[in-house]
Amino acid sequence: MNANSASCSDRSMETGNQEKLPERHSILIVDDEAVIREGMRRILASEGYHVETSASGRAAIEKIQEQDFAVVITDLKMPGMDGIEVLKTIKILQPEVPVIIITGYSTVDTAVDAMKSGAFDYIAKPFSSELILDKLHKAVAHTVSLADGFSVKKVLSAGHGFEDFVGESIEMQKVYRRIVQVAPTDSTVLITGESGTGKELVARAVHKNSPRHGQPFVAVDCTSLPETLLESELFGHVKGSFTGAIHSKTGLFKVADGGTLFLDEISNISLATQAKLLRVLQERMLTPIGDTRPVPIDIRLVVATNVNLRTMVDKGLFRDDLFFRINVIPINLPPLRERRGDLPLLIHHFLGKFSEEVGKEVRGLAPDALAVLEGYAFPGNVRELENILERAVVLCEGEIIQRADLELRSAEEDRYLDPDVVPLNLEELKETKKQIRERAVEPIEKAFVLSALKRNNWNISQAAEETGMLRPNFHALLKKLGISVRDEQGNQ
Predict the structure, then answer these.
(1) What is the pLDDT, as a whole number, of residue 326?
(2) What's the N-to-C CA distance of the chain in angstroms?
(3) 192 and 78 in a common domain
(4) Of the residues 381, 408, 435, which one is the last residue of a structural domain?
(5) 218 phi and psi, to 5 degrees?
(6) Same structural domain for residues 313 and 344?
(7) Where are the beta strands (DSSP E) in 238-327?
């Protein structure tokens, strides 16, 4: 195997293909025979590829939904989901990924069927390591050429729903690529990500780049409607079907007919509504509340959630059959803390936006203000950054946003406001003051005083003595900080 592998590598380098290939491409091997999987894994690993294996078609599809592969090599004849089914599913999930079919049934019909279904190439058993590597290198070179042709700047400048995206990080490039891949299809999309990452932006971009772009895009926030109204909003109702139904209402499924329906935070709907939603998706028909006549619908469904639906399924809070129905093409949005390289671009974008809206000439941030943002965790992600910068633009008095304008504590300040690290005496307090910027002094002084009072049962004299302060000075500090022992004691 090693000799064949080496000769194949040499030949590829002569043709120029090997020089174009990145050092570590991920390859997925799908075969129900362990000896074939392991043999191929060794051949490919010896060439420097990162190799994943799956023993069944369904296991392979789960991996493809969770990560990107440069090439997929799959056996044709497998129990359950065969190679053609795997191929067709991959062409929905990751259309640009080359798939090589391996078969022991090398008839002309088999090859034609595989190529018609979108296979990049096929190999008949038994095969040599030289042959499999030769086919693989060509497939990887194809993937590399497609990647080279994918321009983030071109995508962002093309409009079609991308104009509101800001970011060129590797993490966001994966998101853009997936949108471009899946938009032309009619497959259901599941968008996952923390609050504030921009899930609705992705949904709108999928719609605007789809054949349905001229039809309605209807967004539903499943958290904004009480359960009693959600079913009526989605499916509609007829007049008199329940108390308060004084008029018939067209459901949002029907409003979105021909276009895209976006269900945001789908994890919030009840199990009862989940069952009805599943039936509508399966039958592509809905029956308004109080009606007996089913109505056909034609929609592309996009859903989003900020929680782990698999965990909810395990806990019995989300139907597993509905989860599998909507988890066709997942798109995961990274949190801002995982795309730090985009922070300067986002800051520049929001400063320009809010400077124009507010009518101020704000040119940038002071170094210490930028340092605070760079060290901040952003639990609210891009939406939180947007809010912080809007407030700062409004509050700043010059052309440069100062740290105080952000009204945001640094990670260093948060550490000193932690009850576990509150200074115990006057000397420690003085040292703490030196270690942080001026704006943090007052909150630390307040934490210091309150901590001392609590330890001494709100006795001012004892608290002053313990901290090494004279009682008049301690009392003056209380007054300066606006602390009333009686009020604080009453709030305990």
Answers:
(1) 94
(2) 75
(3) no
(4) 408
(5) -115, 120
(6) no
(7) 249-250, 260-264, 285-286, 295-296, 300-305
Same domain, 186 and 96: no
Are residues 447 and 356 part of one domain? no
Residue with tokens 């006057």: 426
Residues in the chain: 492
The position carrying tokens 């090398």 is 106
For residues 215 and 254, the answer to whether their CB atoms sit within 8 Å is: no
Tokens matching residue 128:
């040599």
| Long-range Cβ contacts of 85-92 (<8 Å, 24+ apart) | 85/57, 86/30, 86/57, 86/60, 86/61, 87/114, 87/117, 87/118, 87/119, 88/117, 88/118, 89/57, 89/61, 89/64, 90/61, 90/64, 91/117, 91/118, 92/182, 92/185, 92/187, 92/328, 92/329
Helix crossing, 2-15 with 129-149: angle to 10°? 40
Any idea what the CATH number is for the domain that residue 61 is in?
3.40.50.2300
How far apart are the C-alpha atoms of 362 and 359, rounded to whole Å? Answer: 9
Are 174 and 332 in contact, with CB atoms under 8 Å apart? no
- 371, amino acid identity: A
Q: What is the tens place of the pLDDT at every residue in 203-219?
A: 999 999 899 999 999 99
**Torsions phi, psi of 71, nearest 5?**
-150, 145
Give the pairing of strands 295-296 and 285-286. antiparallel
Q: What is the pLDDT of residue 173?
A: 82
State pLDDT tens for residues 89-108: 888 777 778 999 987 755 55
